[in-house]
Design a protein that fits this description.
The chain is α/β, with parallel strands linked by helices. The protein has helices spanning 18-30, 44-53, 60-71, 73-80, 95-103, 117-130, 173-187, 203-209, 216-231, 291-300, and strands at residues 12-13, 84-89, 109-114, 135-136, 139-140, 158-163, 192-198, 241-248, 253-260, 264-268, 271-275, 280-287, 304-310, 316-322. Strands 1, 2, 3, 4, 5, 6, 7, 13 and 14 form a nine-stranded mixed beta sheet that branches. Strands 8-9-12 form a three-stranded antiparallel beta sheet. It has a two-stranded antiparallel ribbon with strand order 10-11. α2 runs antiparallel to α9. The structure holds tryptophan.
Length: 323
């Protein structure tokens, strides 16, 4: 039997329904600045494309984060201590998690939370197979909405929320604050958050990371439209839009745009959506922080930054926050 079909671990499913997808998408497309909710990027194809992004030469984030996790695993393990329950939000293919699990002493459980159900189950079963002593409790959910935490067989000594990949950067500051608050609740008293945070740097490096030469990020961006065409009977002509990613210095964020190449009308779930030539959909933001800025945000949400690790070039940071 292949790994993808072996039902080893039981799934808790909170995946949102189709009706809510229609409403959320249309709401965003009715705004003066059209937007699309970022988590709809992550269907199966979107998740695969994202895995390819992480391997691109221009996309420094994943390499830098992995290097930090490799170099400082022992110290991370010592800070977290034994019998921790790892709750990972947006676990994807759980690749970085293996480095974390390897660094910890007898972790009590691994709870991956991920919206892409098939990818979640493949990753959960694969971790369960490779770590037979670790209880794996996958949850299919949009992690920015509330979900119930399962109770591991072994009572954990500490909840460690793991939020790698600078996913925190994909939220505006009020949402990032709410999410940090939610993570503090999940960590509970005495718990901790291990979070990947991308750092501010020169425009060229930032823009290159989201405009790769092979065009994988463009495909990832376009996949949103492909998905709307398939799932909401939308009529986006992919040749009539173009991918663009720019560093918005004033707002401290990379913006991904889908730019309409001409005036056009697109049908989405039966509704007419009008575009002017040059008008764009803001499909995703990726905020970058200085260490000081992130410490301020963390403090607002009631976390204390206990330790910050960076790579040799200070491109990226992994931070250990306590509750
Ligand atoms: N959080 C990462 C980042 O902001 C990963 C990511 C999310 C991403 N959406 C993306 C990367 C879109 C490229 C394109 O970089």
């Amino acid at each position: 039997m292949s790994r993808s079909t072996a039902a080893v671990v039981a799934l808790r499913d909170y995946h949102p329904q189709q009706e809510s997808m229609r409403d959320t998408i249309l709401e965003g497309l009715r705004l003066p600045q059209k937007t699309l909710p970022a988590f709809y990027f992550y269907d199966e194809r979107g998740s695969q494309l994202f895995d390819r992004i992480t391997e691109l030469p221009e996309y420094y984030l994943t390499r830098a984060e992995l290097a930090i996790m490799r170099e400082h695993g022992a110290e991370i393990g010592a800070l977290v201590g034994e019998h921790a329950s790892i709750i990972e939000l947006g676990s994807g293919s759980s690749l970085k998690t293996r480095l974390l699990i390897d660094s910890l002493r007898e972790p009590a459980a691994y709870v991956p939370v991920e919206i892409a159900r098939d990818q979640l189950m493949v990753a959960a079963n694969s971790i369960a197979a490779d770590y037979p002593n670790l209880e794996v409790l996958p949850i299919c959910a949009d992690f920015s909405e509330p979900f119930d935490l399962p109770h591991p067989r072994i009572a954990p000594l500490r909840n460690l929320v793991y939020f790698p990949g600078s996913t925190i950067g994909n939220f505006h500051s009020d949402e990032a604050y709410d999410l940090l608050l939610a993570m503090r609740r999940i960590a509970r008293k005495g718990g901790a958050l291990l979070i990947g945070v991308d750092l501010k740097k020169d425009r060229a490096t930032l823009e290159r990371a989201y405009n790769d030469a092979q065009g994988v990020t463009a495909q990832f961006n376009f996949n949103m439209l492909v998905r709307l065409n398939r799932e909401l009977d939308a009529t986006f002509d992919l040749n009539a839009f173009r991918h663009r990613a720019i560093w918005n210095e004033a707002r401290g964020r990379i913006e991904m745009h889908l730019v309409s190449q001409r005036a056009q009308t697109v049908l989405v779930a039966g509704e007419r959506v009008e575009f002017r030539a040059g008008e764009y959909i803001l499909s995703e933001c990726s905020y970058k922080y200085t260490r000081t800025q992130f410490a301020a945000l963390a403090a607002e949400a009631g976390f204390e930054v206990e330790r910050v690790w960076t790579d040799a070039a200070s491109l990226f940071s992994v931070q250990y926050l306590t509750n």
